[in-house]
Amino acid sequence: MLRQYELVDRVLSYDPNADEALINRAYVFAMKAHGNQKRASGDPYFSHPLEVAGILTDIHMDAETIITAILHDTVEDTGTTSEELAKLFGSAVARLVDGVTKLSRIEAQSVTERAAENLRKFLLAMSDDIRVLLVKLADRLHNMRTLHFIKKEEKRRRIARETMDIYAPLAERIGMYEFMREMQTLSFQFLEPEAYASITKRLEQLNKGDTGQIKRIINGIEELLEKAGIKAKVSGRQKHPYSIWKKLEERHISFDQLSDVMAFRVIVDNTEDCYRALGILHGKWPMVPGRFKDYISTPRRNGYSSLHTAVIHNENLRIEIQIRSQAMHEQAEYGLAAHWAYKQKTVPDKFQQSGWIRDLVEILDNAESPEELLEHTKMAMYKDRIFAFTPTGELIQLPLGATPVDFAYAVHTDLGDQTVGAKVNGRVVPLGTRVENGDQVEILRSAAQTPQISWLNFITTGKARAAIRRFVRHKERSDTLTLGKQLYEAIIKRLPAPLSENALEAALLRLNLKEADDLFEAIALRNITDDAVMEALMPGMALQDATAPLPPLVNHAISIEGLTPGAAYDLAECCHPVPGDRIVGLRRPHAAIEVHVIDCPHLAETNPEDWVDLRWNDKAEGATVRLKVIVKNQAGALGVVATIFGAHKANIINLVLADRDENFHVFNVTLEVRDLQHLMRILAALRAAGGVVQAEREQLPYDQA
Questions:
Q1: Could you tell me the pLDDT band of residue 552, with boundaries at 50, 70 and 90?
Q2: β-pair partners for 660
Q3: Quick check: 43 and 122 in contact, CB under 8 A?
Q4: How do strand 569-571 and strand 593-597 relate by DSSP bridges?
Q5: Do 224 and 124 belong to one domain?
Q6: For residue 608, is it within any domain?
């Protein structure tokens, strides 16, 4: 266990002006607070916060951060309060400790909810002071180093998975690659023990069989650069087991086929020497195509800068080489911490409002459930990135597979919400197009546009998904309330007498509902029966003769103007209603109303009391319809059909050859049309065309829709 004087000496070695007395006071306070508590290893619990503080001294953190590390578990695991810490060690330390503290006292129903709530508080604190993240990463790193002492395998795997999914990506995002690599290796050991053991064994065999190969390569690179007048420090290492395993999985190859197990690092004096060294190395050995990356001209979002290349060395060995200056190296090893000036009393502005942290906080605000929070946060932190540019040359980083919609939300949430189209490299493309590295993306916007539910099918970033889901939730509730109000008015018309002014208020009390909107929502979602609403509004209605016929639920059609498909209502898949069809709404418990064509076979299987008479708004247009088209088995017949669709500006969503024989081909076509009149004109044109035997609108049994 790290001793008190050793910890103080470490801090004073890089910060002679550190408050030694305050560090000693924190040491004594934490030791007394934790008392006789033990860790799973049997060591005194106090050894853990000391080791966390020791990890942070390795990256030269300021005294406040070291004190925070010493005290970080006192509020969670002892009777210490934040007020007590603020009085003894200052408000800054108390705030940092509070940011790191897990919400162990929160009442949560599942592990997912506890993890999400812990992450929620952690992200908020991190956005206020990034040192919270540094302490938390050091805390998790030490916990992973001692994870093998935990007896339950299930708990070990859960902690390892959380580390791999959350904390290792966080370390990568702030450029702390040493922390990231060790976390990944330790997590990999518990998540994939067989793979870890196999790869580790192979690496040990390579080390035993090494006859000084790595040393020879290092000496050769140093001599080559020295002859060119470049002073360089070269080091070599084998890749860590998780990195190797990931390459094997991605490339679907065996360990024997992996040719770049070794990586070498060249550290020179300045940026100019980086490019000079690159030219010399490429001049000496053939470069492996597609493996060169210039992170100096386009740094990663976490500030990482370096040149990466791979060459075929003299010994017929493919090796990876990283070339960087000393300043770049410090950034690469310790990331954000490399920029930390321990004499500063505040967080550097550069990291106070880091863009990706703002994105995480926005995701935090938009997430409705613990599952959403964890899902979106992981999406925001995973590291496979591409670079794209705005028309003004601003660099935007995105995950692989990102679309223009993701790009728009990365620029600004309002731009994402108002996206109507996109140009990539000057060419108009569908919004679901994947953005490639180096693309220039221009977003076309309209103030009248709103996020589309269909975007959820192709977007990749957590920020975009969180923003769209937030809009959908708000729109869904708004639509549901609109529909519920109309149904409520229809219910009132069924009552035998007008209502008093306070009837609604009294009904809410009887139904144990807080406000009118709760009642409207319950009516729309069929969470409450119409009879129950009538009874609450006018007691005694339920005592009427059950055989006496009641007026219909609605004696006029309810418009679905302004409502969004997929929110307040769903268009039935069995009959595909289009504007102009006579339609009926089917009310379903705890679900949106399902809209059917009046002659849909499925309606015969339902209770008419659940029907709601609906009508399309006069301006409604746009829906999909299913057609069955039979053509003669002759050349060009399908072309005739497609030409008719194109001439009528109807978009083909799907076309399937359902059946064929010597004489006829049967096609099932899903078509996008404006309204019923549009559909009828298309059907008339098909039936009049040569080669078309039959063209009909098709409805499917409900269980086949």
A1: very low
A2: 665
A3: no
A4: parallel
A5: no
A6: yes
Known catalytic membership, residue 406: no
Show the domain range for 679: 546-704
The CA-based angle 77-81-86, given to 5 degrees, is 125
Regarding whether 688 and 631 lie in a shared domain, the answer is: yes
**Residues 303, 172 share a domain:** no
Q: How far apart are CA 220 and CA 225, in angstroms?
A: 9
How is residue 103 written in tokens?
């919400």
Pick the range with the lowest mean pLDDT from 88-97, 282-291, 526-535, 664-673.
526-535
CB proximity list for 466: less than 8 A, separation 6 or greater: 362, 363, 366, 367, 372, 376
Split at pLDDT 50, 70, 90, the class of 546 is very low
Going by C-alpha positions, the residue among 374, 144, 308 that lies closest to residue 242 is 144
Catalytic residue among 20, 43, 77, 333: 77
Residues 279 and 329 in one domain: yes
In a domain, 698, yes or no: yes
The domain total for the chain is 4
In 383-447, beta strands by DSSP E: 385-389, 395-399, 419-424, 427-429, 441-445
Q: What is the pTM of this model?
A: 0.53
Q: How far is Cα 237 from Cα 509, in angstroms, rounded to an integer?
A: 72
Question: 420 near 470, Cβ under 8 Å?
Answer: no
Beta strands at 583-586 and 593-597: parallel, antiparallel or unpaired: antiparallel
pLDDT confidence of residue 318: 81
Which pLDDT score, from 0 to 100, does residue 548 have?
Answer: 45
pLDDT digits (tens, 9 = 90+) for 55-69: 999 888 889 989 999
Pairwise CA distance, residues 679 & 558, whole Å: 24
pLDDT of amino acid 661: 86
Determine the Cα–Cα distance for residues 64 and 19; give it in Å rounded to an integer. Answer: 9
Residue 567 pLDDT exceeds 70: no
pLDDT score recorded for residue 556: 42
- Mean pLDDT (whole number) for 14-19: 88
- pLDDT given at position 157: 92
The burial of 355, by beta-carbon neighbours within 10 Å (0-12 exposed, 13-18 middle, 19 or more buried), is given as exposed
Give the contacts of 26 (CB within 8 A, at least 6 positions apart).
Answer: 67, 70, 71, 89
* Alpha-carbon gap, residue 651 to 247, rounded angstroms: 42
| Residue 660, pLDDT above cutoff 70 | yes
Question: Is 76 noted as a catalytic residue in this protein?
Answer: yes
**Given 76, 113, 320, 517, the catalytic residue:** 76
User: Based on C-alpha coordinates, what's the Rg of the chain?
Assistant: 33
| pLDDT at site 688 | 86
Q: What is the chain's mean pLDDT, rounded?
A: 80
Q: Are residues 27 and 167 in the same domain?
A: yes
Q: What is the mean pLDDT of residues 604-630?
A: 77
- Name the maximum alpha-carbon separation found in the chain: 106
- Residue 646 sits in the same domain as residue 585: yes
Q: Could you tell me if 217 and 264 lie in one domain?
A: yes
What's the whole-number mean pLDDT along residues 627-645? 91
Question: Which of 341, 372, 387 finishes a domain?
Answer: 341
